[in-house]
Structures are given as C-alpha cells and as structure tokens.
Design goal:
The chain contains 11 helices and 4 strands. By secondary structure, it is an alpha+beta fold. The chain has a domain of 94 residues. Helix 4 runs parallel beside helix 7, helix 7 packs parallel to helix 9 and helix 9 runs parallel beside helix 10. The chain is elongated and about 65 Å long.
Length: 230
C-alpha cells in the first residue's frame, strides 16, 4: 500500500534529522525543497476531510516559507489560509494563524481578521493572536484588548505552581508596552479550579488611567466640534 502524503513528508524530515524525537520548522526548512515535496504538502492541505493531514500540511507549509517556496504554491495557498482560520478544529486554526501572520503583507484585511481571532473560543488560539499584537494593534486602538481583563483561561507557570490568568496578564503587559507606560502592579486572587486559587495582575490602575484619557479625548473632540459650528 502506498504511503499517504504526510508519511512521505515525515520520512523526508527524518532523513534531515534522524536523531530528533519531533519535527521542528527548522528541520523542515533544511529539507531540499523539490517539486515532489511541494506536491506532497499541497496534497495534505487538500485533505479537508482528514484533519490530521491538514495539520501536517500546515506544519510543513510554515517550515518551507523560510526557503522561498514556488510562487505558484503561494498563489494557491493565500486564499485558503483565511478559510482555515475558521476551521472547526482549534489546532488547525492555530497552525493556520501562524501562516497567516507570516504572510500578512498579502492580506488587506489582516488587522480585521486578527481582531476577530482575539475573540476565538479556544484559549490557545486567541493567546497566539495576542502574542502577535505588535503586528496589528497600535496605541490608538488598545480597546481591542480590553475584553481580556475578564479572560477565564487559567494555567500553571510550571508544574505544581499556582494557577494564573495567563492571558489576562499577557494582555495587560501588551497594553503597557503599547502605552509606553508601566502601571502600578498589585496581585489579585480568587477561587480557581478544583479548590485551587488563581492569581492575576489587577487591571484597575490601567482602567483608571484609560478612563481619564478617554474623557480628555471626548472633551477635546467636543470643544473642536463646537468651534466648527461657530
């Protein structure tokens, strides 16, 4: 029985790094990029009803983006990536997101799409989008990050460590970077999972500052409109 496309791709990767326990994007980038390999990746990406094949296709796609893939392949790929961002499988959405970010200069609606992904129901996906905030969020539109103050995703920073609202904390750190302003840090704590407590940084110092600045903007805009009327 002939091997499926992902198996043939994995064999190529194994020849490049036979001692590796896993396959990294760096390993994939070291594989000589041939027409046969591009064909195998395309075959994986075309298996919309076989999620495992689609995932491998996206993983290998990310790897070959570093080695100048054929323009025909990119032309075929570009319209499909935004579709995969809405796939029912969150792992597919996350892998597609990585490719979408890498190819962002080809999408006129990149910012709008990323803002939408910030609302993804799967924490891993919206967290990945948040980590790319520098590519689509500026100081002027920090408001797209405000909903993260109530994000419910909890994780351990290491095995056995206390639970934290990791996405909340990362979003607040992103806002500090965008504002160029550190806010007073105080840790909050509340009930988490299985009787454990969960910790997070208090957003209130930022929210107080944000409210004052928004009020100033409103007053300035109002004065400007009044002056125009006269």
């Amino acid at each position: 029985m002939s091997k499926i496309a992902s198996e043939r791709l994995l064999e190529r990767a194994k020849r490049v790094n036979p001692s590796s326990l896993g396959i990294s994007a760096a390993d994939i980038a070291r594989i000589p990029l041939s027409d046969e390999m591009v064909s195998e990746i395309t075959e994986c990406l075309s298996k919309l009803d076989v999620v495992s094949e689609l995932k491998w296709g996206l993983s290998f796609t990310l790897g070959v983006l570093d080695v100048n893939p054929p323009q025909d392949f990119l032309k075929w790929l570009l319209p499909k990536v935004p579709i995969w961002l809405k796939h029912q499988d969150w792992d597919v959405r996350e892998r597609a997101l990585e490719t979408f970010v890498r190819l962002r200069n080809n999408y006129k609606n990149y910012r709008e799409s990323m803002v939408e992904v910030l609302q993804d129901p799967e924490a891993v996906v919206r967290w990945r989008a948040l980590k790319e905030y520098r590519t689509f969020v500026s100081q002027e539109d920090i408001s797209v990050l405000l909903h993260f103050q109530n994000d419910k995703y909890m994780s351990e920073t290491e095995m056995g460590s206390p639970l934290v609202y990791a996405i909340r904390n990362d979003a607040l750190a992103a806002i500090e970077t965008l504002c160029g302003k550190p806010f007073r840090k105080s840790e909050k704590v509340g009930p988490g999972e299985a009787g454990r407590m969960v910790y997070w940084w208090d957003w209130q110092p930022f929210l107080d500052w944000w409210g004052k600045n928004q009020s100033k903007v409103s007053v300035t805009r109002g004065a400007f409109l009044t002056e125009l009327k006269h």
